[in-house]
Design brief:
By secondary structure, the protein is of the alpha/beta class. The protein has one domain (4-155): Rossmann fold. It has helices at residues 16-28, 48-58, 74-80, 93-109, 129-137, 150-155, and strands at 4-9, 31-37, 65-70, 85-90, 114-119. β1 (4-9), α1 (16-28) and β2 form a beta-alpha-beta unit. The protein starts with a strand and ends with a helix.
């Protein structure tokens, strides 16, 4: 029986930090489902279909990674995808409080689904999609921080 982790986020855009979390998740799980959140309240740079496409292109050679669009409760996505765990990356101690609250609430909604935290590699502790969007919009080079497939998408914005 395959063990599946759900890795949720907005991925606006996907970064090499996200890629690192997925790859490390594959060391613990047979399958990682990247849940691309459709949350218009966050005012994303890219629409959800484009964000799913970027994730799919990034992992096109990895059959055990799947990108899906979702809205609503994360535990519902976990049920739909037969997920065993929620995979989350932590960049700094400041991430922990929010992530701890989310993990606690998700456990309250479904105690069978565990949350697994992966510490970011040192190279990516400062990388966030927000910084990528800001730097790129001002003409900065983010090519060492995002998968190559993301660069053309950023160039159109």
């Amino acid at each position: 029986m395959k063990r599946t982790a759900i890795y949720p986020g907005t991925f606006d855009p996907i970064t090499l930090g996200h890629v690192d979390v997925v790859k490390r998740g594959l060391k613990m799980f047979d399958r990682v489902v990247v849940g691309v959140a459709d949350n218009p309240d966050k005012s994303p740079m890219f629409d959800v279909s484009t964000r799913v496409a970027m994730v799919e292109e990034t992992f096109k050679d990895e059959p055990d990674v799947q990108a899906v669009r979702f809205s609503g409760l994360l535990v519902n996505l976990a049920h739909e995808q037969k997920g065993d765990a929620i995979l989350r990356g932590l960049r700094a101690a400041s991430d922990f409080e929010y992530e701890f609250q989310m993990a606690t609430m998700n456990r309250r909604l479904d105690e069978r689904i565990e949350t697994v935290f992966v510490m970011a590699r040192e190279d990516y502790t400062f990388v966030s999609s927000r910084f990528i969007r800001e730097i790129s919009s001002m003409g900065g080079d983010v090519s060492e921080l995002v998968p190559p497939v993301v660069i053309p998408y950023l160039a159109t914005k």
